């Protein structure tokens, strides 16, 4: 699959994309706002990664934490 204008590098989803979404998820919780909301390409990347079946399943059932 090719994700033009969404992924960070190599014209396909990479670990860097997943890492970016994970880090910004934590930073958004700390900042108490969605840090990628105003950036359409980054928002699309976040939605793309969080829609992957394995990641989506984990996010839905992961334990609640203080973060």
Describe it.
Helices cover 55% and strands 0% of the residues. The protein is built from 3 helices and no strands. With 67 residues, it is mainly α.
Strand content: under 5%
Percent helix, as a range, is 55-70%
Order of helices and strands: HHH
Query: Which structural class matches the secondary elements?
Result: mainly alpha
Number of strands: 0
Gyration radius, in Å = 12 Å
Q: Which residue ranges are poorly predicted, with pLDDT under 50 across at least 5 consecutive positions?
A: none
Q: What is the CA-CA span between the terminal residues? A: 33 Å
Query: Which term fits the overall shape?
Result: globular
Mind describing the biggest β-sheet? none
H/I helix tally: 3
Number of domains: 1
- Rounded average pLDDT: 83
Keywords:
67 residues; mainly alpha; 3 helices; globular
Q: Summary?
A:
This protein is mostly helical and 67 residues long. The protein has helices at residues 15-31, 40-50, 53-61. The protein is 55% helix and 0% strand.
Topology:
Blueprint: H1 15-31, H2 40-50, H3 53-61
